[in-house]
Amino acid sequence: FAVAGGIALLGIVRDRRAARALGSLDQQPLDAPLAEAARTLVARVGGAAQRARWAQTPDLTTPLTHGVRRPLVLLPERVVDLPQDERDALLAHELAHVVRRDALRAHVVRALARLATLVPFASAVARRWSPAVERAADDLAAAWTGDRRALASCLVRVSAWHDTRRMPLAATAMADRPPHLQVRVERLLASPVRRAGALAACLLVAAGAGLGTVAFAAAPRPVTANPTADEPDTPVAPRAPLDVELEALDTELDELVELARRAKPRPELDTALARLAARRADLHRARQALPAGR
Length: 294
Description:
Blueprint: H1 2-23, H2 32-45, E1 53-57, E2 64-66, E3 72-76, H3 84-99, H4 102-115, H5 122-145, H6 148-161, E4 171-173, H7 178-189, H8 198-209, H9 240-262, H10 267-289
Helix pairs in contact: 1-4, 2-3, 3-5, 3-6, 4-5, 4-10, 5-7, 5-9, 6-7, 6-8, 9-10
């Protein structure tokens, strides 16, 4: 118990230091176009999205979301230079972290991993958690915007901005390591929606950004009678965004419960897991109230 308590205390200290480091950044209000885009997205999503606070800073090279009660989305200044569709995709991705309460989950996962240092596979589960969360946020953001290609292109471009400085422990950052980035981009472009030529488009973005560490197998764009016409968007059923979040939430919560079962008893972890389970139940009820759609 003494060892577990010491590990937990060390983790709390590190998280608080990370929070203070974020608070010391030069945070500024969003530029007018970004602020308007964020307001529009929040109004469309509603619910938990309204808890988000937004700011931009010259001190970061990748967007990140931090905080549990009033999550703060911090954007690097270069976001204003993105094409509009990629900017909207980036905002949707970060807002997905807020709606999914990923900061709370991050606290739970880190606490379990610290307390379960003697439990086989605990550290492996914790390592797999972060890429899984980013993929789930990608899926939810793409469901909101309906543009998977823009998000894939944005991921490649933003990863080229990213430097090697460590992100705060309690934050979820959009940029990813090349192996995980490739998986995320290929997952997004595997959808039939606007799939033709999308890999090639992302390769062009990567080349223009100087990102030579990510390799994709690009397929040529098929020639059509009207080369300027794009594939029609596949309509998103009313339940689609909830289905995406529920599938990810079910998987993550099951893994957390199993990890908690193997760890030392700790009441605050049980409370956090209970909140996540209640969130899942609320989402299932909300899904049942929606029409199935097509």
